[in-house]
Write a structure and sequence with these properties.
heterodimer; A: about 150 residues; alpha+beta; Sufe protein. Chain: A; 5 helices; 4 strands; about 40% helix; globular; B: about 425 residues; alpha/beta; Aspartate Aminotransferase, domain 1; Aspartate Aminotransferase, domain 2; four-stranded antiparallel sheet
Chain lengths: ~150, ~425
């Protein structure tokens, strides 16, 4: 296993220069994600247009895998509707957890995260942003939904 | 820490290559490279002497203790009570009644919180901890505060990771009922001035619990010289098995405390009208204990004393100083925790590389370090860091381990640019 399979150039680039980074104001919903094992925290902000994510940003501090995963996620889902996002979530989940999973073409640049599955301790780093996104989408639909998710 | 000059002079020099042969796990490879184990602060590895003692007990002597007249039950009881005497000598307690076997440091602290503090503390009473405590020496006291209405006070530290002793003195008052402090910080390696902390607390009539999990493997601990009321530590950081630890408590305090858990072994007589409890130490050891764990812990104490705690401390000090110097040479690396008095631990961060990424890259090079908040989130908040990487050293670590760590950090720099 080569370290370069985990830390691909796309990941290092998105870690160094995260896209859609910072607070989104105004936003329709946000949620906090927390990985208590490593202390990583991030917040996902959404602006919705009906069923579609009109704009998304994320804020917080984490490792390269968690930052790059969140950055790539924001690029991938901007402008998508909830059905598309559900499919992406399913596909990224398979990519991160199933040995020999072939990246679905819909994942595009997100396929760069495929090396993470060789490092079980790091899978939660990559998936934290997706769980946080789901919580934010729930919040956008029902304001009483929980505003915090945890990997544990 | 409590070594006298004559002990230092006579302490044998540690033959680390011979020591390494006592630890079979050090022969294995990780990711195709020789294991460099720098996570002994989380859990140390076990020498053959401990593995054999446990195997020997399980193979030839196991039965339940304090129960049967048959030969094996007597052999098991002797092994278990023999281990208690071994622990007593190791920390120089007055009596084996003062040695309570528990699962580990965490359980020891919870026992004191629930059996000593909870029944007697009232609103207005205060418990003092320091800002660098492990969660195990914070949360049990927060629970007591919720249960009794007493208040938790936090003695501050400076950015080097040293207790601000004068600030601690200012917190002490007749309201202080208990002071709970680490002997050595698990996240930074700072050694706290426990003797002075104890003396000042006693002057106000407060009792003192010392979390010795990180101190016992690296120094002579003499509970009577320290004067503390309670001292807690774990076996698995002292080259012993997991699931066994020790609570030392002064006999008169333990006598005055009600049992914490009820069950077998802790009673004299049981009827549905009235149950009478056993004396010390059985009163605090309900149920079948970790017998083989106690046997293994005793073997671990024999092992470290055969090497000499002064020799171990001197060796580790040399390694810590070397690691500190080598890591400081690496561009962008910053040592976290630079107390004047430190033991066995070097915590650090690297510019632009998150500790978890460091952990993965180091693991790739066969180097095991801990990364994260080290179960000391309030300390990390104070330091303004989400996490650090921590190399913790033990008797079997070498100069070469330090060189491999430094080279692996160079690799991290390479990957992240």
């Amino acid at each position: 296993m080569d370290l370069k399979d985990l830390y691909r150039d796309v990941i290092l680039d998105h870690n160094k220069r995260p896209r859609n980074f910072g607070k989104l104001e105004p936003s329709d919903a946000f949620a906090d994600g927390h990985n208590p094992l490593c202390g990583d925290r991030l917040t996902v902000f959404l602006r919705m247009q009906g069923d579609r994510v009109e704009d998304i940003r994320f804020d917080g501090k984490g490792c390269a895998i968690s930052t790059a995963s969140a950055s790539l996620m924001t690029e991938a889902i901007k402008g998508r509707n909830k059905v598309d996002i559900g499919t992406l979530f399913h596909n990224i989940h398979s990519l991160l957890t199933q040995q020999n999973a072939v990246a679905d073409p819909s994942l595009g640049k997100l396929a760069a995260l495929s090396g993470v599955r060789e490092y079980p301790a790091r899978v939660k780093c990559a998936s934290l942003c997706w769980h946080t996104l789901n919580a934010a989408l729930e919040r956008a639909a029902h304001t009483e939904a929980p505003a915090t998710v945890s990997t544990e | 820490m409590a070594a006298t000059a004559s002990q230092v002079v006579h302490s044998p020099v540690l033959d680390v290559e011979r020591v390494r042969r006592d630890f079979p796990i050090l022969d294995r490879t990780v990711n195709g490279r020789p294991l460099v184990y720098l996570d002994s602060g989380a859990s140390s590895q076990r020498p053959v002497a401990v593995l054999r003692a446990v195997e020997e007990y399980e193979t030839h002597s196991h039965a339940n203790i304090h129960r049967g007249v048959h030969a094996l039950s007597q052999a098991a009881t002797e092994a278990f009570e023999g281990a208690r005497e071994r622990v007593r000598r190791f920390i120089n307690a007055h009596s084996t009644k003062e040695i309570i076997f528990v699962r580990g440091t965490t359980e020891a602290i919870n026992l004191v919180a629930q059996s000593f503090a909870r029944p007697r503390f009232k609103p207005g009473d205060e418990i003092i901890v320091t800002a660098l405590e492990h969660h195990a020496n914070i949360v049990p006291w927060q629970m007591v505060c919720e249960q009794t209405g007493c208040t938790l006070k936090v003695a501050p530290i400076n950015k080097r990771g040293e207790l601000l002793f004068d600030e601690y003195l200012k917190l002490l008052s007749p309201r202080t009922r208990l002071v709970a402090v680490a002997h050595v910080s698990n996240a930074l390696g700072s050694i706290l001035p426990v003797k002075r902390i104890v003396d000042a607390a006693h002057a106000q009539g407060a009792v003192v619990l010392v979390d010795g999990a990180q101190a016992v493997p690296h120094s002579h601990v003499d509970v009577r010289a320290l004067g503390c009321d309670f001292y807690a530590f774990s076996g698995h950081k002292l080259y012993g098995p997991t699931g066994i630890g020790v609570l030392y408590g002064r006999e008169e305090l333990l006598e005055s405390m009600p049992p914490w858990q009820g069950g077998g072994d802790m009673i004299l007589t049981v009827s549905f009208e009235k149950t009478t409890y056993s004396g010390l130490p059985a009163k605090f050891e309900a149920g079948t204990p970790n017998i083989s764990g106690a046997v293994g812990l005793a073997a671990a104490m024999d092992y470290v004393e055969s090497l000499g705690l002064d020799a171990i401390a001197a060796h580790e000090q040399r390694i810590v100083e070397l690691a500190t110097a080598e890591l400081e040479k690496i561009p962008g690396v910053q040592i976290i925790g630079t107390a004047a008095n430190k033991a066995s631990i070097v915590s650090f961060i690297m510019d632009g590389v998150h500790p978890h990424d460091l952990g993965t890259i180091l693991d790739h090079e066969g180097v095991a370090v801990r990364t994260g908040h080290h179960c000391a989130m309030p300390l990390m908040t104070f330091l303004g860091l989400p996490a650090t990487a921590r190399a913790s050293f033990a008797v079997y670590n070498t100069e070469k381990d330090v060189a491999i760590l430094a080279a692996a950090l160079g690799k991290a720099r390479e990957v992240f640019g």
